[in-house]
User: Fold this.
Amino acid sequence: MLGLTHAKDVQASVGGVYIDRSRPGYFPDSCPPSSHITLNFPKTSKTKGNVTLHWMDGGIQPERPEELGASETFGDGGNGTLFIGTKGKMMASTYGRDPLLLPTSRTKEVSLKQSYARVPGQEDGHYTQWVDACLAGYGKIELSSPFEVAGPLTEALLMANLAVRGHELRTVNNEGKISYPGRGLKLLWDNEQMRVTNYDQVNQFIKREYRKSWNLTT
Assistant:
């Protein structure tokens, strides 16, 4: 809805249970117990400036909005989304269910004409669309999330994963001392060159060399 494209920078804060200082209680190739990712997107024709997106998991949640009553549940109690706009705030449950303006009393007071059609079947409907489009062939069915939308979205989420990997990359010096040079950095993304410009170690995860006869062409 906001016309967001690629993320211009990303940073991560990752939680974990450590066995000792040299051995984390989880593995870099799997997801961490918890994380907080911050993605910044460039201004678009539909925004007044850059857009900041926070992703939190593993039980981490944002500060409760002051417009939400003390006994009201944020999201669905487990997951949720908080939108902070120029004219107010709203929240929703998992997958955008049950959207409510904040304070929640405003939901009954404000009436707006629907601008975007809901996908029939909600999240299950997305899976159905994908299967139907595969059967019909490329360009034969109108989709709610075509490659033009899904591609940049996936790339942005992969940037979040890249920040997590960068957070856990470690180096060992000649004396055996371990350091984590990627922690505390904001990774700057060059979308044209498809690379991080200020922490080269994470660029190894962006692309891979395929075996012969399995090349990917554009």
Summary: The CA atoms of residues 62 and 163 lie 19 Å apart. The radius of gyration is 21 Å. The longest strand covers residues 34-41. The mean pLDDT is 88.
